[in-house]
Amino acid sequence: MIETYYDIITKIENFFDGIMIVDENCIIKYNKNFSPGFSFNEKESIGKTPMEVWPNLTKEESTCYRAVTYGETTTNKIQILKYVNGQEFTSVDNTFPIIENGKIIGAISTTRMIDEYPFKKTIDLPNMTTTYTDDLYNLNDIIGSSKSIELLKYEIHKVSQTNSSVLIYGETGTGKELVAQSIHSLSTRKGKVFISQNCAAIPHTLLESIFFGTTKGSYTGAENKAGIFELADGGTIFLDEINSMDLNMQAKLLKAIEEKRITRIGGSETKKIDVRIIAALNEDPQDCINNNKIRKDLFYRISSIQISVPPLRERKSDIEKLTEHYIKYYNREMNKQIKGVTDEVLNILNNYDWPGNVREFKNAIECGMNFASSILITKEDLPDIVQKKYKYNNNMDNDLNSLKEYDVNTLNEAVESFEKQFIINKAKHANSLSNLADDLCISRQTLNYKVKKYGIDFDSLNRN
């Protein structure tokens, strides 16, 4: 009889992680699990009771049994269920009796998984969101063959074989998380969870609960919830921009790392944890210590191994390979057939400083791919900031080359000729004399003196 309603009931399956239907005797007639993490055969549960499928479940604890026996409706009940094959999960359960002509003919139970993390390889917590992918970065994703990149790959390979803490430092956009994920992917922990936490993205008042978890009632609205140290047990935690963390929180973090135990906020039970810590700084480590941005004791504890990620401007020989890589990548993403870049564009890419490093470079190629109207990316397709810097550098080169034509006999004359040309070139891009003084890093009074000395007509330069 219950089978008559299958088509209607199962239309709601897309809204849940699992649906189970039982008849009036609490025999499972339909059981569908949409979570990719569980490997148990759903058909094997048909014809059994929920108590037989989940041995840790008693009749009185079974929401389905209570629904068909007492007509009871259950909403938002958290359950920990353990399959006969040993798999365990926590879910939010909603169960409703199914009534026909005043008689209970069965029950439907809908499930939402709340701890699928064992089956996800990465958990990204800047906004407490999770990535459902097995594709962590590895050495093949580090593009380049320069000496600095070859050294970086060697260091990653070596340190991945141990459980020592690692400190990665480098400028923003250099790929510190790529390095961290590559270490994890090559390690014996690769089958476990990798959690990435940007310490600058979360207010320091929330970091403790994110790290260590909470106990229900510890503060208003608090629930029993595991922190990232529990979630990553056996795996790796990547703490990005750790230098932005509050010093008091750093002390608590140090204690957890040293003792390898954590206590949830509001709780009394300590839990043993096994995680590998990989931390990252976006500033020079010694500067962070000198400026009191990181505790010395924490620094020494997490910096058993230090890895420096080079900025893109120091490995310009990798530009061509990076260009080819990202063109291929965006051809797939955008369904395009771009073959490459013009010689002029390659020259621009090689001469730009890339303050945003590989992240900025990737965005520049993406911009070029969007605007390209032929099989090659041209100068006009690049971001404005890259084009303007190229034009500025060209003007500087021309101005400096023009010094060769000047009739100068002494070093002082050469310095003055260069200074005049330098001020003129800067003036072309300044909105005012005050702005020009700021660009030159001199006072307005000093600038006025030099403008008069060299007879520079600022207004005329800005009209041209």
Structure description:
By secondary structure, the protein is an alpha/beta fold. The chain has 4 domains: 2-115, 2-Layer Sandwich (Beta-Lactamase), CATH 3.30.450.20; 118-310, P-loop containing nucleotide triphosphate hydrolases (Rossmann fold, 3-Layer(aba) Sandwich); 313-391, Helicase, Ruva Protein, domain 3 (Orthogonal Bundle), CATH 1.10.8.60; 406-463, Arc Repressor Mutant, subunit A (Orthogonal Bundle). Helices cover 39% and strands 18% of the residues. It has helices at residues 6-9, 50-53, 63-70, 147-159, 176-186, 204-212, 228-231, 247-259, 285-290, 296-302, 319-334, 343-351, 357-371, 384-402, 411-427, 433-440, 444-454, 458-463, and strands spanning 18-23, 28-33, 74-82, 88-100, 103-113, 122-124, 129-131, 166-169, 194-198, 236-240, 261-263, 270-272, 276-281, 305-308, 340-341, 376-377. The strands form 4 sheets. It has a 7-stranded mixed β-sheet. A 5-stranded antiparallel β-sheet has the order 2-1-5-4-3, covered by helices on one side. Helix 11 crosses helix 13 (357-371).
